[in-house]
Amino acid sequence: MNWPILMSGGAEGGSGGIVTLIWFGLIFVIMYLLLIRPQRKKQKEHNLLLQQLKKGDKVVTSGGMFGTIFAIDEERNRVVLKISNDIKMEFLKSSIAAKVDS
């Protein structure tokens, strides 16, 4: 069975390199639109969430721990979550996954 040859090196001169370059460019654009751009958008939304946190917000951590923000230490980038009346735990601020509605 003969398969059609898409790029021949002899007759076209140097256009095989151009076609390859166009393919790499097309693959990069597709990767950007499908992977890089949505991830950047998600990261910006998460950073905005972390900046807007305040005392009394109910949150969930990336590990699944629910709690209410008791204190925020901006200098050390940590938050203290009140889990129950007597239990307070310290977490990295970046481990807050989302705010939770009552």
Summarize the structure.
The chain is of the alpha+beta class. It has one helix and five strands; from the N terminus they run H-E-E-E-E-E.
Structural features:
102 residues; alpha+beta; SH3 type barrels; 2 domains; five-stranded antiparallel β-sheet
How does the helix and strand content classify structurally?
alpha+beta
> What is the level-2 CATH architecture name of the largest domain?
Roll
What would the principal axes of the Cα set say about the shape? rod-shaped
Number of strands: 5
Low-confidence stretches: none
Reported by name, the CATH topology of the largest domain is SH3 type barrels
What share of the residues does DSSP label as strand, in percent?
A: 25-35%
Strand order of the largest sheet: 4-3-2-1-5
Counting DSSP H or I runs of 4 or more residues, the number of helices is: 1
Helix content: 25-40%
Alpha carbon gyration radius:
25 Å
Which sheet architecture does the biggest sheet show? 5 strands, antiparallel
Mean pLDDT: 89
Q: What is the CA–CA distance across the termini?
A: 67 Å
- The CATH class of the largest domain is Mainly Beta
N-to-C series of helices and strands = HEEEEE
Counting structural domains, the number is 2
